[in-house]
């Protein structure tokens, strides 16, 4: 039979451990990052290429014609809008043209992988809708690795410049992580 003193000590130990674990779990860091992504679809060295889509669609509406297209990307991330500014990482993933009419919208699944600077070796991933023609788009962060382990948060994306279909997108990202 367990003594009353042992039972009380055991309950106190369990209560202490639960408090310590809960306190550690609540200690989240907030990181804010700003960078630019270069989505290059034309020229001799594109960073985003269409890999699937409808080729027999005859609509005169360019948005409807692109509906269902899927592209794979490996876009450079830089500290400033100029492509020759410091490279900090790559945005790698897939986006699909997901809107049929009156809107140019993408479904994106991307991982932003940092290859230099204070976040070197860390990543965060997004999954969500990107209505490209909106001035500001909010995209959810669904996870991360390295310094961004267990990340969640959001990206605010703004088109900095667009020439034909090549674009420079500015990102302001807020991450909650451990």
Overview in brief:
Pfam families: Dirigent. The protein has 178 residues and is α+β, with helices and mostly antiparallel strands. The protein has helices at residues 4-26, 62-66, and strands at 29-39, 48-52, 70-78, 87-97, 105-114, 123-131, 137-145, 152-163, 166-177.
Could you characterize what this model shows?
- This protein has 178 residues and is α+β, with helices and mostly antiparallel strands.
- The protein has one domain: AOC barrel-like (Beta Barrel).
- 16% of the residues lie in helices and 49% in strands.
- The chain has 2 helices and 9 strands; from the N terminus they run αββαβββββββ.
- It has helices at residues 4-26, 62-66, and strands at 29-39, 48-52, 70-78, 87-97, 105-114, 123-131, 137-145, 152-163, 166-177.
- It has an 8-stranded antiparallel β-barrel with strand order 1-3-4-5-6-7-8-9.
- A hairpin with an 8-residue loop joins strand 3 and strand 4.
- The longest helix is centred in the N-terminal third of the chain and has 23 residues, at 4-26.
- 25% of the residues are buried.
- The model has no long low-confidence stretch (mean pLDDT 87).
- Keywords: Apoplast, Secreted, Signal.
- InterPro entries: Allene_oxi_cyc_Dirigent, Dirigent.
């Amino acid at each position: 039979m367990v003594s009353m003193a042992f039972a009380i000590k055991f309950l106190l130990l369990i209560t202490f451990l639960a408090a310590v674990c809960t306190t550690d779990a609540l200690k989240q860091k907030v990181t804010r990052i700003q960078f630019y992504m270069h989505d290059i679809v034309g020229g001799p060295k594109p960073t985003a290429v269409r890999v699937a889509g409808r080729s027999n669609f005859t609509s005169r509406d360019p948005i409807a014609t692109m509906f269902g297209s899927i592209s794979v990307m490996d876009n450079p991330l830089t500290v400033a809008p100029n492509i020759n500014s410091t490279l900090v990482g790559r945005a790698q993933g897939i986006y699909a043209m997901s809107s049929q009419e009156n809107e140019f919208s993408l479904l994106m699944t991307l991982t932003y992988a940092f290859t230099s600077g204070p976040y070197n070796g860390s990543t965060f991933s997004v999954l969500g809708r990107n209505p490209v023609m909106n001035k500001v788009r909010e995209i959810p962060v669904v996870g991360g690795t390295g310094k961004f382990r267990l990340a969640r948060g959001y990206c605010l994306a703004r088109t900095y410049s667009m020439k034909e279909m090549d674009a420079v997108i500015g990102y302001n990202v807020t991450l909650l992580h451990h």
